[in-house]
Amino acid sequence: MISVVNLQKKYGSFTAVDGISFEIQKGEIFGFLGPNGAGKTSTINMLTGLSRPTSGQITIDGIDVRKQPKKAQAAMGIVPDESNLYNEMDGFDNLCFCASLYGMRKDERETKARQLLEQFKLKDAGQRPFKAYSKGMRRKLTIAAALIHSPKILFLDEPTTGIDVESSRQIREMITGLKRQGTTIFLTTHYIEEAERICDRVAFIAEGRIVASGAVPELMAMISQGHAIHFVTDKNPESLIGGLKARFEGSEVTIRPDHSLVMASENRVPLLPIMEFFHSKGIDVYEARELRPSLEDVFVRLTGIESSVLKKEKEKGGSR
Amino acid sequence: MKSWIAFWNILKKDVRNYYLKPPNISWGIIFPLSWTLMQLIRSPGGSIIELLPGLISMSVLFGTTSMLAVTITFERSGRSFERLLLAPISLNTMVLAKIAGTILFGMFNAFVPVIFAGFLINLSAINWGIVLLAVLLIAITSALTGLLIAVSAEQVFEAQTFSNFFRFPMLFLCGLFVPLSSLPGFLRPVSYCLPLTYGTDLLRGAMKGMNTLSPVLCFGILLAFAAGLFLICRQKINRNWIL
To answer: Do A86 and B2 lie within an 8 Å CB cutoff?
Structure first.
């Protein structure tokens, strides 16, 4: 559905996007993650025809975006990182106006606007001016405006940044619902756990280059080494370290500051013998779970940037 | 057909959101009215019909240049203008839709002094066909000048500053209230480089038969200005706003 080959964008001597390539399949949610200034928005702007690439190819739904940007734009819905509808107009009129830009007839656009207001739980606010909306409502209406012409591809730039938990949840549900209907979604977000939860594939961009990309489990596998199990017990298990190492050869045993125990090994170790070992030493196990690297761990390892830095940058209002 | 839907709705949105707002309607009425009164008080014996072409030109110029420059810069700063750039409509449709509202607003401004004058003098001898065409062409060229300012400005205050930089000299250079023959010789070539000079000359001819240039030439030059400004604006938008 989206094919990008050696895409480059230069502003004078500064290279914002440095020869990136990726493909996105139909009905896929593709996450594009990176810190401010990494080249995320420059990439989105080139994909959506708002900016001209210095070099490279972009094909969207079989259309060469560089040659026919307007034709490609008809297949896209775009949600920018700022909710940019018209403050003076009410929710319903904003949606109808956006629909008119895609050539939809009056009856069509009014029906679709009502349907979207209902779907996004904004029906009661439909007659209120956009400027009177809360941040979460503004975000939802901006997304609804991008969906008014039923696009095949949806570009979402930071859809849940700075909004309330309930609105974020609704937006995530909407995104996964659209995927089920076959919409292709290109998503940028500072919330790595959000990308981990909803994206099929992810690309990390830093300093204009894609440092890693792939399916979420594949990326996690890149940094996972062996297996680790975390145990929460009723007593401090520090005295068991030596015994555990001797009983389960090749295992690394560490105690965390909260007195929980982590046992790591090259191969998978069955739980029952370990539980029996604890039991034989008079220690009850309340919790045992396998420790897996998160997408956040992968991001930190590959980019060297803490994810908390990413969130703070956005909250400070910095963009790209 | 689909482009017409977008064109019509952009125009309707601009008229509703900007031009029909009380401050703009009151500006459209009060500004030309106060200039008319000021001119009459300044020269009590002066002929209203002689003042009318200048007042009409000035009303259109001020109404159109500032409105378009300010509204577009305002939409760009709030990023709602991106919606138009990202819509599957041609740049030509978008530019035409944006200037259409301003042209209508400028024409509304133009007829405020005319209506006011209608209460004071007999206007039956005026060639209304030429007046209407002249007002339309003045509005188009002024709106495109406003668009050119908008493409060059980043902030609303910049747009206002640039507008004033263009408009106030034009009051004196285009024969609105000071005849071109009274201008110093070195300034006259500048006057003939400004579209408003030709629009005002057309209005003078249609109202009092006091034109100095052929109406056909004036119409031709105004059309050429409109086409040239349109192309420059389109090129500048393409270059400055689609980076």
So the answer is: no
pLDDT band at A237 (very low <50, low <70, confident <90, very high): confident
Which residues does chain A have within 8 Å of residue B8's beta carbon, measured at their own beta carbons? Answer: 100
- Supply the ipTM of this predicted assembly: 0.83
For A254, phi then psi, to 5°, come to: -130, 155
**A71, A7: one domain:** yes
Using an 8 Å CB-CB cutoff, list chain B residues near A86: 13, 17, 80
Contacts of A114 (CB under 8 A, 6+ apart): A92, A123, A126
CA distance A153 to chain B (A): 14
Note down the domain range covering A265. Answer: 226-291
Among A97, A98, A158, the strongest candidate for a mutation testing the B interface, having the largest count of B CBs within 10 A, is A97
CATH label of the domain that carries residue A160: 3.40.50.300
Domain count, chain A: 2
Q: Do residues B46 and B38 make contact, with C-beta atoms less than 8 angstroms apart?
A: no
For residue range A31-88, what is the model confidence (pLDDT) as tens digits?
Answer: 998 888 889 989 999 999 999 999 999 999 999 999 999 999 999 999 998 888 999 8
